[in-house]
């Protein structure tokens, strides 16, 4: 069992487990770009595994573009991003402005596609969430209002019939919800933007992609 200070992963391949733990340390900033990792003996002691597991773990990280082995000098961190980082984990490191910008960009394109591809079931779902958004906003029920707003835009994403956009929007919105609750003290801004959302829904009902794009852009501009 590896001595890492946290619950061990139930995995047969110790090298993959070590690589995951080292990757977490790199992403968290424990080891920064340009910094040398501990020596093989130090890593063996830290994780409680053999030399072969450490070497294989380093190869995994090197293949992800996170570290580089320099013969005679050691293993150095060359990136704290890496192509192998799960999206959810990357979003946890993102700040509010980054996440919100991605959300707004997605909402604009999603609205345009939804106006083209939506069906009657999609429309009914959107109407229900938008009504919930209005009632909770006027009652100053902040968290239910935020959830209704997210549900409304998620329903639009579903109507876009683009599974990748839908997955991206759901993931980003999930990470943003807590930030919204912390940033807003009341529902005033949701009340103010209700008419824009009503217009957006109507354009999707009318299958008017240009107007859907227009209203989604206006909502995006107001939300910045």
Automatic annotation (TrEMBL):
Source superkingdom: Bacteria
Xref: SUPFAM superfamilies: GntR ligand-binding domain-like, Winged helix' DNA-binding domain
InterPro entries, per the entry: GntR_C (IPR011711), TF_FadR/GntR_C (IPR008920), Tscrpt_reg_HTH_GntR (IPR000524), WH-like_DNA-bd_sf (IPR036388), WH_DNA-bd_sf (IPR036390)
Pfam family of the protein (one): GntR
One Gene Ontology MF term: DNA-binding transcription factor activity
Domain HTH gntR-type: 12-80
Coiled coil: none
Annotated keywords: DNA-binding, Transcription, Transcription regulation
PANTHER family per record: REGULATORY PROTEIN GNTR HTH, TRANSCRIPTIONAL REGULATOR, GNTR FAMILY
Protein name: FadR family transcriptional regulator
Native organism: Chitinophaga fulva
């Amino acid at each position: 069992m590896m001595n890492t200070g946290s619950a061990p992963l139930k995995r047969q391949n110790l090298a993959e487990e070590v690589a995951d733990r080292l990757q977490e340390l790199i992403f968290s900033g424990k080891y920064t770009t340009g910094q040398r990792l501990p020596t093989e003996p130090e890593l063996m002691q830290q994780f409680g595994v053999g030399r072969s597991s450490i070497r294989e773990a380093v190869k995994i990280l090197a293949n992800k573009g996170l570290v580089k082995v320099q013969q005679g000098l050691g293993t150095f961190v060359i990136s704290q991003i890496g192509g192998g980082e799960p999206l959810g984990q990357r979003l946890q490191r993102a700040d509010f402005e980054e996440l919100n910008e991605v959300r707004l960009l997605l909402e604009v394109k999603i609205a345009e596609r939804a106006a083209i591809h939506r069906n009657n079931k999609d429309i009914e779902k959107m109407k229900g969430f938008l009504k919930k958004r209005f009632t909770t906003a006027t009652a100053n029920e902040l968290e239910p209002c935020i959830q209704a707003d997210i549900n409304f835009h998620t329903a639009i994403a579903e109507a876009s019939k683009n599974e990748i956009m839908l997955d991206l929007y759901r993931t980003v919105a999930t990470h943003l919800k807590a930030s919204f609750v912390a940033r807003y003290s009341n529902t005033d801004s949701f009340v103010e933007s209700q008419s824009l959302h009503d217009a957006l829904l109507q354009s999707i009902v009318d299958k008017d992609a240009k107007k859907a794009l227009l209203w989604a852009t206006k909502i995006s501009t107001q939300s910045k």
